[in-house]
């Protein structure tokens, strides 16, 4: 892997090249959001993740423009909220996202959560149309179980390039990861440091220290070494730099196995969904 944070390695999936390191922006607002996006891009990040539900797309766009980085060099993801999954609503919502971002297209447009109240075929048909209309270069899903991935792939006429899910060492996501691997889809990990819990983990601290790294860096390295995209959220410049310094070392098989053993039944930290939690894998 390239050691330069200005040239982050990518996960390839059905024609999409998704930088393995991105900035998550959930809960970032206003000027603070715009500044951290600008700073991340100036530091070499090339992947920014937002959503209409985050209410910060305008600030993400402002931060991108302030960074001076070329549009073609930045991978921007946003997500449509499930109340907008009816076909006409989805297209309108996608256009509204672009208006707030002040972009002509996003690189990746995702369905934020499953919505069993609207037929998936209708939603995916509209999502595919949005892509064909040039509003998104790629489309994907988020918080889909392995079963929902299989269902979506049978329906969609356009390639589904990823599933964005909660993913970190405390949560066994092997079924979803396996489903994505079978179908050449990328896995994008939100809450990759388990909302900060990994930072104080003794196992991660010990394994990280052996490489001159922190527990949080060890946690992120564990994921990117499996070709899983990580989008940690932070508002601190120092943490931006720390999160980016994960491509200049590698874990042994035994170290990876020891980190994998941290998974436990209560490991999920985002056990919520639009219409009640799905039957998680």
Describe this structure in words.
By secondary structure, this protein is of the alpha/beta class. It has a single domain, classed as NADP-dependent oxidoreductase domain (TIM Barrel), CATH 3.20.20.100. The chain has helices spanning 30-43, 57-67, 87-101, 120-132, 146-155, 174-182, 202-209, 215-224, 237-244, 253-260, and strands spanning 10-13, 16-19, 23-24, 47-49, 75-80, 106-111, 136-142, 160-166, 186-190, 229-230. Helix 1 packs parallel to helix 2 and helix 2 packs parallel to helix 3 (87-101). It is globular and about 55 Å long. The model is unreliable at 1-5 (pLDDT under 50).
Rg to the nearest angstrom? Answer: 18 Å
Report the CATH topology name. TIM Barrel
Gap between N and C termini: 31 Å
Share in β-strands: 15-25%
Largest sheet features: 8 strands, parallel
- Number of self-contained structural domains: 1
Give the overall shape, derived from the CA principal axes.
globular
So, CATH architecture?
A: Alpha-Beta Barrel
Within CATH, the superfamily carries the name NADP-dependent oxidoreductase domain
Structural class: alpha/beta
CATH class: Alpha Beta
H/E element order: EEEHEHEHEHEHEHEHHEHH
Poorly predicted regions:
1-5
